[in-house]
Model the fold of this input.
Amino acid sequence: MFWPFSIYRLIYLKQRYIWAQIRILHETEKALLIDNGMKIWIPKPWLHGIRLRNNLFEIYVRENTVG
Done:
């Protein structure tokens, strides 16, 4: 197990992914226009998953993409 503030973690940063609740406003072949409090375009290669849960869309993306 690694310490939370170690040199290893600074050198080898692990990308974290999250499920973010969104509203899909528009879709093109290359991107989605989403609304999660602010409207932004997300390129489709950045999406690692889309699911419908309790009538809400969620996308699986890198933590800093939507948050």
